[in-house]
């Protein structure tokens, strides 16, 4: 993949994977699974007993980030020359992407376009690559920002920048943008005019926006990514489609540092400018209580001021922002906020200082394997220092084990067989008796010949089956999804509501209640129903909510809707596995899906949506990335064993169902 179309490309995979698995079971080919499986991002899971780091400051002087002067009096094209000449490891700097990104570059506002062109020339990096590199930071970083105020009212501001980018760009080799590759590129920049510092920042060489910056005596400013339900890509796609009314957050940060002369001016610009993507701005001033977290949508803004306290943090002398809205709990699988707050509380206001903040930012998992630098800022003295960070192995590793893998040791094969047998027996919404199958001819794996001209379901799927709550809500979700594919705004509040309605319906079934009990007993889910619902929502819908996938919808339509209506383009079967009496339970077949031929897929026939979600979720949590034994039994027939394979998709340090399918 060498074009900007990577976004829909990548998303369509995840999207269609996730959607397709809601009803139909296995549509995803080995190669895709491989792709999901291959990702080497890390995940955090919150350890409840935080050990606050102590005496970490100062780190080794060799970890101090070098400083470069950026002379704003030079023409934009020349400003970055000396830095890029120094860092000219162009072979190392991401040898990818070329053709389409220059077109995007041309759309960027001045002086940024000229600066990028200058960088491209001096470094020998394609303009497309350098543009991509600049755009990525808008959406692919994880961070923690802390503002604290000492007993004397003096404000300190610190941040960790965790670089969590992974995208399935080059399927064969997707280690191209690693934290390791970036660390040598971290530089401090001193932006000067007339030989005087106007502002400072810490950047990756080649990136010309600002994510962390300070205007001495005036204000300090950091940007954290916000994974918003609005979808971080929507604004960027709008930009590409020609809507230039919004700002790139990193460039806006730089504009503010350049032009705003006071904390209040900065606050005003940061709350009112239109943005391409949702973000958090963390802004602190030079006077007591001047500190805010600005939670931004593309248009709207929420401002949490220091001193006020909020649901998530009671103490009034500091503010912590990671990547979640302050009015919500962070998800349990990525809670860096709670440990940071605990350690700040432990430190106490009296000892608030840059070294104290450094300790907090050195506490795992606030400090983690993706952390590339820590920056400390004291606006009143102009002290600005950043440090390269490498979370030491193996102690960092222990944080990175996913919740499931860590605790699944307890879940025996017998326990999995028993719970799955029970769930099958509870599956009153299953359509096992109501489907009349017409298997027709046997075919061979990989055969494209249609050996079965008639539909698989002789009489389609009966209306009364489709009108059962979990089926109906699922269909509604999809209808809605399909209806919105022509719009730019891809995840509407209505869709979110449909999603919730579907989960509510599923949670009303005894199948999912029993699943919850089982997972709680194995330490794989929290006992609160709401938290469990949130957990399932995250693993099943997390990526979908951010996804602009037009292709995905057609893939879904092709597979899911047609399947639901009973007229899937069925080419014949290769094997069947009967689960007791009645129609077969699993059918293995070749299938054409989303224009891609899958030589080998497996369908679960007649199982309700809730049963499929339940079985996949159990396997995903108890036996991630491997085979999970299942005992299927329909209509009191003989129980038959098969296996479910799940693959974990990791994205932004979070875990999602990449794929899940039965196999026998
Ligand atoms: C947390 O750690 C402290 C001391 O390190 C220990 O006494 C306590 O039992 C731990 N609590 C839990 C829940 O593990
Ligand atoms: C793929 O990545 C490895 C490092 O993981 C590197 O050594 C190799 O050269 C890369 N291959 C290509 C074709 O870029
Ligand atoms: C910033 O704060 C310091 C110390 O609190 C103070 O001495 C200085 O005058 C302030 N600067 C401005 C521009 O207000
Ligand atoms: C999307 O647009 C196409 C043509 O522009 C139209 O034919 C189609 O019906 C639209 N689909 C929906 C779901 O609105």
UniProtKB/TrEMBL annotation:
<dbReference type="Pfam" id="PF09412">
    <property type="entry name" value="XendoU"/>
</dbReference>
<dbReference type="InterPro" id="IPR037227">
    <property type="entry name" value="EndoU-like"/>
</dbReference>
<keyword id="KW-0378">Hydrolase</keyword>
<comment type="similarity">
    <text>Belongs to the acid ceramidase family.</text>
</comment>
<dbReference type="GO" id="GO:0017040">
    <property type="term" value="F:N-acylsphingosine amidohydrolase activity"/>
</dbReference>
<keyword id="KW-0458">Lysosome</keyword>
<feature type="signal peptide">
    <location>
        <begin position="1"/>
        <end position="29"/>
    </location>
</feature>
<feature type="domain" description="EndoU">
    <location>
        <begin position="412"/>
        <end position="664"/>
    </location>
</feature>
<dbReference type="Pfam" id="PF15508">
    <property type="entry name" value="NAAA-beta"/>
</dbReference>
<keyword id="KW-0325">Glycoprotein</keyword>
<protein>
    <recommendedName>
        <fullName>ceramidase</fullName>
        <ecNumber>3.5.1.23</ecNumber>
    </recommendedName>
</protein>
<dbReference type="InterPro" id="IPR018998">
    <property type="entry name" value="EndoU_C"/>
</dbReference>
<dbReference type="GO" id="GO:0005764">
    <property type="term" value="C:lysosome"/>
</dbReference>
<keyword id="KW-0732">Signal</keyword>
<dbReference type="InterPro" id="IPR029132">
    <property type="entry name" value="CBAH/NAAA_C"/>
</dbReference>
<dbReference type="InterPro" id="IPR029130">
    <property type="entry name" value="Acid_ceramidase_N"/>
</dbReference>
<keyword id="KW-0865">Zymogen</keyword>
<dbReference type="GO" id="GO:0004521">
    <property type="term" value="F:RNA endonuclease activity"/>
</dbReference>
<dbReference type="Pfam" id="PF02275">
    <property type="entry name" value="CBAH"/>
</dbReference>
């Amino acid at each position: 993949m060498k074009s900007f179309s990577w976004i829909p490309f990548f998303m369509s995979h995840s999207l269609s994977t996730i959607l397709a698995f809601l009803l139909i079971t296995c549509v995803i080919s080995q190669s895709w699974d491989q792709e999901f499986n291959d990702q080497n991002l890390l995940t955090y899971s919150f350890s409840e007993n935080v050990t606050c780091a102590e005496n970490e400051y100062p780190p080794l002087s060799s970890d101090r980030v070098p400083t470069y002067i950026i002379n704003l009096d030079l023409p934009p094209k020349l400003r970055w020359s000396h830095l890029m000449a120094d860092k000219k490891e162009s072979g190392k700097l991401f040898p990818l992407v070329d053709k389409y990104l220059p077109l995007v570059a041309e759309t960027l506002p001045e002086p940024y376009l000229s600066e990028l062109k200058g960088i491209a020339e001096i470094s020998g990096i394609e303009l497309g690559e350098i543009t991509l590199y600049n755009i990525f930071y808008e959406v692919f970083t994880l961070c923690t920002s802390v503002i604290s105020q000492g007993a004397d009212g003096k404000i300190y501001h610190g941040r960790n920048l965790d670089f969590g980018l992974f995208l399935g760009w080059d399927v064969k080799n997707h280690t191209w943008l690693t934290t390791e590759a970036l660390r040598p590129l971290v530089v401090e920049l001193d932006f000067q005019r007339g030989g005087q510092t106007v502002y400072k920042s810490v950047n990756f060489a080649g990136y010309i926006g600002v994510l962390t910056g300070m205007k001495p005596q005036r204000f300090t400013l950091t940007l954290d990514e916000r994974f918003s339900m609005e979808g971080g890509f929507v604004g960027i796609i709008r930009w590409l489609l020609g809507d230039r009314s919004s700002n790139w957050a990193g460039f806006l940060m730089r504009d503010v540092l350049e032009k705003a002369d006071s904390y209040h001016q900065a606050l005003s610009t940061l709350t009112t400018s239109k943005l391409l993507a949702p973000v958090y701005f963390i802004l602190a001033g030079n006077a007591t209580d001047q500190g805010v977290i600005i939670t931004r949508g593309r248009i709207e803004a929420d401002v949490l001021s220091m001193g006020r306290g909020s649901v998530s943090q009671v103490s009034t002398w500091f503010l912590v922002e990671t990547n979640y809205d302050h009015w919500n709990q962070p998800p349990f699988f990525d809670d860096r906020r709670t440990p940071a707050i605990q350690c700040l509380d432990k430190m106490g206001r009296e000892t608030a200082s840059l070294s104290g903040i450094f300790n907090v930012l050195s506490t795992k998992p606030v400090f983690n394997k993706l952390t590339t630098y820590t920056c400390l800022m004291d606006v009143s003295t102009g002290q600005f220092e950043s440090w390269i960070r490498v979370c030491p192995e193996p102690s960092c590793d222990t944080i990175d084990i996913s919740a499931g893998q860590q605790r699944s040791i307890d879940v025996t094969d017998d326990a999995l067989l028993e719970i799955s047998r029970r769930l099958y027996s509870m599956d009153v919404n299953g359509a096992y008796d109501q489907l009349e199958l017409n298997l027709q001819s046997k075919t061979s794996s990989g055969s494209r010949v249609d050996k079965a001209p008639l539909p698989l379901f002789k009489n389609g799927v009966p209306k009364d089956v489709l009108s059962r709550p979990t089926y109906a809500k699922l269909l509604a979700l999809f209808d809605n999804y399909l209806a919105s594919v022509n719009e730019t705004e891809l995840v509407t509040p209505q869709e979110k509501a449909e999603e919730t309605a579907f989960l509510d319906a599923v949670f009303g079934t005894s199948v999912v209640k029993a699943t919850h009990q089982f997972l709680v007993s194995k330490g794989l889910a929290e006992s609160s129903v709401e938290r469990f619902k949130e957990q399932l929502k995250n693993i099943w819908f997390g990526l979908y909510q951010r996804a602009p996938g037009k292709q995905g919808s057609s893939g879904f339509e092709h597979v899911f809707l047609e399947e639901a209506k009973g007229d899937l383009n069925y080419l014949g079967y290769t094997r069947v596995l009967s689960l007791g009496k009645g129609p077969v339970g699993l059918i293995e077949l070749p299938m054409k899906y989303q224009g891609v031929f899958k030589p080998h897929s497996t369908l679960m026939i007649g199982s309700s949506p809730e049963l499929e979600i339940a079985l996949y979720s159990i396997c995903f949590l108890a036996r991630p990335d491997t085979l999970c034994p299942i005992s299927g039994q329909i209509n009191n027939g003989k129980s038959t064993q098969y296996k479910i394979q799940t693959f974990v998709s990791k994205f932004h340090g979070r875990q999602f169902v990449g794929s899940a399918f039965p196999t026998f």
